[in-house]
Write a structure and sequence with these properties.
single chain; alpha+beta; 6-stranded mixed β-sheet; 20 strands; 37% helix
Length: 616
């Protein structure tokens, strides 16, 4: 008789044994074939992969003047598995000129995975970055005494001029988020932090190379593996040519010394930025090497915010420069004709509402209204647009139609300049006012937007782009600071024309008004220049002293340059903004300054306003 219990036990035991064998086989396959953990450890013991960093692309101005280049520097790397506590720390610290406390903290930070997520004791880790030639030479003589430490040749950025900090930006060590976003980087790498160094990082950085070195059983380097057959060479980054004219930029920065404000100059025919000044500023040469972190912290704590690029981040009331956009809208929509006249008896008076204005002839039409910067004319124009039931069924429809014109001119949204941090400004719409006034509002409620006050805010870049659009009689190119990237075409975004909703005829009329302003209106200070300059002043109201504003272009019928100047607390447009623009026009169009223009430049450089007075 068969023993069925014994047979069942045999089956169970055999099944368990089979499962165990299968598990072991699967695990062996996982470790040897599917997982590369052991292979990595073995490779780490047998090979050292030495990263060879590419040369970062150089940057030059529109005339080929070098702005940014590279100088050799060295990073000090450590392989923890080779160091293994065999180091004479006193001698090591003396060789580098560091304290023992710094050494201990740095070694602990390297091993701390919360601070250094890519840590491995078998691979090179950054101990100290950007050693100078002198520091490298002193250390390299003794490096054989410090097992586990290696030098890695890198480069450090050098800035030729003390100008253009906000446009150029700077380079610093990658953050943890940089590494997470792009696996190109590893701890200790450098990345563009601000300016074009940031926005063109992928073009400037190039491609890393790798050199594979063979180790012996004691971890000592024996030379290249397979005579370098598997090595890859680094590929240098692409060079950038900016649209910036460094002489124009330097002149602008000098004239804004001791002032808070911005200058933006654009070439209308291309959208290339010729100058972009933000004041207060700083010397870009402060932001290199070991001192970058310390200097950045000091600048970020400065109450006057020198790190802020006011040209693209400052959001200001445009003042009377905005009247040109109103004239374009009213003319194209048929709210006014070139012959329409409005009264201005020292301002706009209607139903108890008064908006003041300076003395001039009255009534007047659109060309002299632009020339004299008449508040009354443009208040009447907006009021008649908002209340015109022949053209618009209600005030909300009229308001959104107005907003569409402003949007087409590049207001209320980011233009798309190739710099990080651009702000959009503010252009209100019907929903904005419905919410603010519970649906009970009309043209009188919002009358101040007609003269560039109230809720309207623009960046200096947008004001300059308005000048470029009028210069082109109805279209603009998205402003951009990079003119050319070596070896690749410029983004199509910067090569397309953007047409506004306003008519060509309206632009011709507005340009005539701006020319009249120079010949005998608020911009008559510019009348002495040997070019047909077109301009519009602005005096933007402020809780304290008014802001001084100018927008214009030259020559009138073959425009080469459009300029916006914004000086906070500078008073009338003619006080600061117009004289500054006159010097810039002469420098760019003549290539040099006359003796009288140089004297004016020197005088403007000495004049202080706002924070400049507080720091005399």
């Amino acid at each position: 008789m068969k023993d069925y219990n014994l047979g069942s036990r045999s089956i169970v035991i055999g099944s368990v044994a089979t499962v165990i064998v299968i598990v072991y086989i699967f695990r062996l396959l996982t470790l040897q074939i599917m997982s590369d953990d052991y292979k990595k450890n073995a490779d780490s013991n047998a090979f050292q992969k030495k990263i060879e960093y590419p040369s970062r692309g150089v940057i030059q101005d529109r005339h080929g003047r070098l702005l940014v280049y590279n100088q050799p520097a060295y990073d000090l790397m450590v392989v923890m598995n080779e160091e293994s506590g065999r180091l004479d720390t006193t001698e090591f610290c003396d060789a580098l000129g560091i304290t023992k406390e710094f050494f201990i903290k740095r070694m602990n930070d390297i091993k701390d995975r919360s601070k250094n997520p890519g840590y491995s004791r078998y691979t090179q880790q950054l101990f100290m970055s950007q050693l100078s030639d002198k520091e490298y030479s002193a250390f390299h003589e003794k490096m054989f005494r410090f097992p586990g430490f290696y030098t890695q040749k890198r480069s450090i950025r050098e800035y030729v001029y003390p100008y253009l900090a906000h446009v150029l930006g700077d380079v610093g060590e990658v953050s943890e988020s940089d590494i997470e976003e792009d696996d190109y980087y590893q701890p200790g790498d450098y990345i563009g932090k601000l300016g074009v160094e940031r926005s063109y990082e992928k073009q400037l950085r190039g491609v890393k190379g790798v050199k594979i070195l063979l180790r012996d059983a004691h971890g000592r380097i024996q030379g290249s593996y397979q005579n370098g057959a598997l090595d890859t060479r680094p590929q240098a980054g692409r060079d950038l040519t900016l649209g910036i004219d460094i002489k124009l930029q330097a002149l602008g920065e000098k004239m804004l010394e001791g002032k808070i404000g911005s200058i933006v100059a654009i070439e209308p025919s291309t959208g290339e930025v010729l100058a972009m000044v933000s004041s207060p500023t700083y010397d870009p040469r402060m932001m290199i090497g070991h001192n970058r972190g310390k200097m950045h912290n000091a600048l970020s704590r400065n109450v006057w915010k020198p790190l802020l690029n006011r040209s693209i981040m400052g959001q200001y009331p445009p003042g009377s420069t905005f009247k040109t956009s109103q004239a374009l809208t009213f003319l194209t929509e048929g709210v006014i004709t070139p012959q329409t006249q409005y009264p201005c008896n020292h301002g706009f008076y209607y139903k108890g509402l008064h908006v003041g204005c300076h003395g001039h002839a009255s009534p007047l039409s659109v060309v002299p209204a632009i020339s004299t910067s008449c508040n009354g004319f443009f208040c009447w124009g907006l009021y008649h647009m908002m209340s015109n039931r022949r053209l618009y069924p209600n005030v909300q429809f009229a308001m959104n139609r107005w907003r569409d014109y402003m949007k087409s001119m590049g207001f209320g949204y980011k233009l798309g300049i190739d710099l990080p941090g651009e702000k959009r400004g503010l252009i209100p719409n019907a929903e904005f006012y419905d919410k603010a006034y519970n649906g009970h509002w009309n043209g009188l409620t919002i009358i101040s937007i007609s003269i560039g006050q109230g809720e309207v805010n623009l960046t200096p870049l947008q004001i300059a782009n308005l000048g470029a659009t009028i210069a082109n009689r109805g279209y603009y190119y998205v402003p951009h600071v990079v003119k050319k990237v070596s070896g690749e075409p410029l983004d199509t975004l910067y090569r397309r024309r953007h047409y506004t909703m306003a008519s060509r005829r309206a632009y011709d009329i507005v340009a005539a008004g701006m020319r009249s302003s120079v010949l005998g209106g608020t911009c008559r200070f510019l009348g002495h220049l040997p070019y047909e300059v077109c301009g519009k002043t602005g005096t933007a109201q402020n809780r304290g002293q008014d802001h001084s504003v100018f927008m214009g272009f030259a020559p009138m019928n073959n425009p080469k340059i459009a300029i916006a100047v914004y000086v906070e607390n500078g008073g009338f447009g003619a006080d600061f903004a117009v004289p500054i623009a006159s010097v810039l026009f002469e420098q760019y169009l003549s290539g040099k300054l006359s003796p009288s223009a140089q004297r004016l430049c020197d005088e403007l450089q000495k004049r202080r306003v706002g924070y400049g007075k507080a720091n005399r």
